[in-house]
Amino acid sequence: MIEAFLSHLQVERRVSAHTLDAYRRDLGALAAWAAQQGVADVGALDSAQVRQFISAEHRRGLAAKSLQRRLSACRSFYAWLLKHGRIDSSPAATLRAPKAPRKLPQVLDADEAVRLVEVPTDVPLGLRDRALLELFYSSGLRLSELCMLHWRDLDLAAGLVTVLGKGGKQRQVPVGSHAVRALGEWHAENRGAGDAPVFPGRAGGPISQRAVQIRIKQLALRQGMFKHVHPHMLRHSFASHILESSGDLRGVQELLGHADIATTQIYTHLDFQHLAKVYDAAHPRAKRK
After folding, report:
1. Is the pLDDT of residue 288 over 70?
2. Which of 91, 97, 202, 238 gives the lowest tally of CB atoms within 10 Å of its CB?
3. Is 235 an annotated catalytic residue?
4. Residue 65 annotated as catalytic
5. Which pTM does this prediction carry?
């Protein structure tokens, strides 16, 4: 049943390989625990047993966030079994995992972001690196979205990029003027056809996500930024800076391609942090111990 559910996620819901692996690990842990209890059919577990499974994982040292993911996988799995008439009720529907402390994403301030993207272009791969960083920060793309871009997905004249996000959902995102210029210069040097990847790897196919992660870390160090800079930090910075300037949470949600606005709301906390720092620095009676 687990394999059938995973096939459903891959074929019908078109989840990413990373998401599929996470479901496989979480449901594999459930199946292993059930086998230890002498239960061969995970569909036969009741609510008390699924609760015992989560408790056992907690005692094993899993963090609250991992427990939440385990339980979310169980809920999705049992909801699918219920929908297909394989069980009468979901044993995970009413269970709640412990709350995980909210960890705010790290972001670059505006000056740091500008310093990072303005890498020299008169060095090997300089035009590519500049175009890659400008596009990341300009449009807030996910790493997977950027790596899979083809030239046909870019409309530089209109300043738009069409990306395929999570679950195969397509969206259009504006591309800033600096990114348009950098991409135009890179295209003039690269001369990629419409079906060619914007950022090709060594074998000619799309550049790997790992290669981009390593390159951004190297470029940040070259620019004198001694913090852990990674691709998703540019996406976080994009969202935070847009929200800081506009206050339009729904607009930021659409730009990022978030299915649930609750995912986007974390950036309101980042914005409040910025306001609190301004207040503390400016108000004569705001000094705190």
Report:
1. no
2. 202
3. yes
4. no
5. 0.63
